[in-house]
Amino acid sequence: MGLKSVVSEGRQIELAIELIRLGARLQVLESETSLSRERLLRLYKEVKGASPPKGMLPFSTDWFITWQPNIHASLFMEIHRYVVVHGDLGGIRATISAYRLYLEHARLQQLEALMSFTRAWTLVRFFDSKLLTSAPCTSCGGNFVVHALDLNKDYVCGLCVPPSRAGKSLKWQRAAA
Amino acid sequence: MKSAQLLEEILETNLTYLMLAQRMLREDRPAAMYRLGISRDVADIIEQLTPGQVSRMAATNTLLCRFRCDDRAILSLLSGYRAEKPMPAAHGSILLAGQPAAAVA
What we know:
The complex is a heterodimer.
Chain A: H1 6-22, H2 26-32, H3 37-48, H4 67-85, H5 91-108, H6 117-128, E1 132-136, E2 143-147, H7 170-176
Antiparallel strand pairs in A: 1-2
Chain B: H1 3-27, H2 29-36, H3 40-48, H4 51-58, H5 72-78, H6 88-98
Helix pairs in contact in B: 1-2, 1-3, 1-4, 5-6
């Protein structure tokens, strides 16, 4: 520990706190900061006042393709792409910035933020590893999250042609009333 | 509307827009660029304008900010025209974010 600069360690702790506040799981913290697991655990308990949830991270790409999560994921990825391409952000900074803007959108539209920070982080990793990608909808022209290996030439998004049950759940009807 | 009053309101809108854009860019540059729909070079120009330049730029008979919803799909989604479709605001935002950023030609 003697070789590490105090300033850079301070930054790491600052980043970890920011991530914990956004709802990141311990695995995200371990992968994005250089702090030890023990320190992260202590930090987590201090910030959240509770132990971090145990268990594995959600690892399936399919969740991002299901109807409603796909809209949230696509919006997040479009914002993410914007801050990466134009805003010169990269790595975890881009994910944080895009996630904040996504939360803001959900709050303004009174939508439940279906995507947790950990999900958003996982989504970016799936894009990096080329399991998921974006494809333009042939009807509206917007970019949507799709499986990279699917045939997406004639892709139509779930908003232009919603599945028949979309928006008909009790929760939606109550929200509309 | 009298033309003098109109010009004054244009000036006011331009001033507000430029000053707001500058403040946003200084506080959180990447987020501001997303909100404004501008690219790096435009962000640089706006950020570096001096107060004198801002007021000179604002004092014109044209508006300095561009109408961003110039796509029929975005327009109808954001205005709620196609209200029977689900989540129009999210759809509109996805389309808006996918538009090319304003850049210096």
